Amino acid sequence: DSPFTIVAPQADAFAKISAVDYAGKPIANVSVLIAASDLSKNFSGVTVADGSFSTRLPAGTYTVEAKSPPERSELINPAPVVFIIAIGETKEIIMQFNKLTKTVTGMVTFTNKEPIPDAHVEAYNETTGQWISAITDANGTYSMNLSSGKWMIGIRPVNPTTSRWRSPRQYQYVEFGAGSVSETKTINFVV
Q1: Cα(155)–Cα(171) distance, integer angstroms
Q2: Phi first, then psi: what are they for 156, rounded to 5°?
Q3: 71 FRET partner, CA 20 to 30 A, in 11, 21, 132, 169?
Q4: How confident is the model at residue 1 (pLDDT cuts 50, 70, 90)?
């Protein structure tokens, strides 16, 4: 019997995450987060031109999340993926982003029905953490492409220091069904 216990260092595994759009084309600048199931460690980075992010990590169970780059606001973030990886294994995971197929449109006006051309309209999806925004045109109208789920919609002046109005700090909600069926809903704001 030996009074010592010898512990071999934990060997690494290799994960390659590929981000592709709805047409199967690679997406650069996607934020990737890989977190251990017990939250003891995480690995993060950004995809390169070929849409990939690679990292070494210890064997275990992980969840990978991918967030679309700011310049690709038409994309829906994919659902997180849970994977198990063994010592010495190479795991390849494809994160496919879908195209937004839901539309919310509307007008922003004063109570006298005069259009507000300087409204910043913002939509937030609590489930995905995604923000989408638009600015009203000269007629006070806006349009945004969203994904399925429940969205909180609000408005604020583009430039609060020069605007004739203030943010009402009231939000409206719109909910779209799951799937790729196109839907359009109207949300108007009166200030």
Answers
A1: 8
A2: -155, 155
A3: 169
A4: low
Cβ–Cβ < 8 Å for 105, 174: no
Residue that is written with structure tokens 């991918």 in the block = 66
* b (16+ CB within 10 A) / e for 49-84: eebbbeeebeebebebbbbbbeeeeebbbbeeeebe
The β-bridge partners of 146 are 102
Among the listed residues 81, 79, 59, 71, the one whose alpha carbon sits nearest the alpha carbon of residue 30: 71
- Can you tell me the distance from the alpha carbon of 139 to that of 11, in angstroms, rounded to the nearest whole number? 62
CB contact set of 3 (below 8 Å; sequence gap of 6+): none
The rounded distance, in Å, linking the Cα atoms of 157 and 136 is: 10
- The helix/strand/coil state of 66 is strand
Taking the C-alpha atoms of residue 121 and residue 151, their distance in angstroms, rounded to an integer, is 12
Q: Report how far residue 31's alpha carbon sits from residue 130's, in angstroms, rounded to the nearest whole number.
A: 13
Token pair for 75: 């994309």
**HSE-up (13 A, CA, CB side) for residue 22:** 10
Confidence (pTM): 0.57
Tens of pLDDT, residues 2-22: 566 555 455 689 999 999 998
Residue with tokens 């010495």: 88
Most distant CA atoms of the chain, gap in Å? 91
Which amino acid appears at position 127 of this protein? T
Contact between residue 153 and residue 105 where contact means Cβ atoms under 8 Å apart = no
